[in-house]
Amino acid sequence: RPVAAEAAAAPAAEQRPSAVAIGDSIAFGKGVGPGESWPAIVAEQHGWRLDDLAVSGSGFVKAGWNGTTYRDQVASALKLHPQFILIAATRNDRDQDPAAVTASADRLLGELRDTFPHAHIIGITGIWGADAQPATLDRVDDIVRAAVSDVHGDFLDLGSPLQGKADLLQADGIHPNAAGQRAVAARVESRLAPLAATL
Question: Could you tell me the CATH number of the domain that includes residue 66?
């Protein structure tokens, strides 16, 4: 490709709206290929330039495989000036102290809003597997819903896109396979549709 064309392509990529994803192993795309996580699929559909900051095992309170929490992901996001912020409630926090999850969610969402007053903050419910979602995750969803609403973000209730669909999960019964990630992304898109004018 001519040098001039390559030079033109680079700024074009930089001019795309920027987005970050804050989340867990499911948002990271554990066990699937590059570009197959639900945040990557959603970003591609909207033409966003995505930085997926998600870490396996992490939550607002629960530390991930590398000892970090959402606190660290938000710290990274604060350096990136995103126009869209995807933040996922997570099953990883379901056994944590609800008061601690609430305090962390309120603090981190507040920091994101204070730093990026015009960013579109989009929260989503946690992703469960093929069986019925437990009440402990419902509680986490409610906590994150309130925190997102308090900073005038949009919270998407995905329902249970994987319930009764073991074929959409990897062998561990926890993480969506590529088809499962597409199912989650499709559910996100269906909930985003009424907000299309703001995306």
Answer: 3.40.50.1110
Q: How many residues does the chain have?
A: 199
pLDDT per residue as tens digits for the range 117-131: 999 999 999 999 999
- Whether the full predicted model's pTM is greater than 0.85, yes or no, is yes
**Separation CA 183–CA 151 (nearest Å):** 28
Based on the structure, what is the number of domains in the chain? 1
How distant is the alpha carbon of residue 128 from its chain centre? 14
Domain membership flag for residue 14: yes
Residue 175 resides in a domain = yes
Contact present, 58 and 92 (Cβ < 8 Å): yes
Give the mean model confidence (pLDDT) for residues 4-20.
Answer: 69
Is-contact 26 57, C-beta < 8 A?
no
- pLDDT over 70, % of the chain: 93
Domain range holding 135?
3-189
For residue 5, with 0-12 CB atoms within 10 Å meaning exposed, 13-18 middle and 19 or more buried, which class applies?
A: exposed
Q: H helices of the chain, where?
A: 3-14, 25-28, 38-46, 70-77, 98-115, 135-150, 178-192
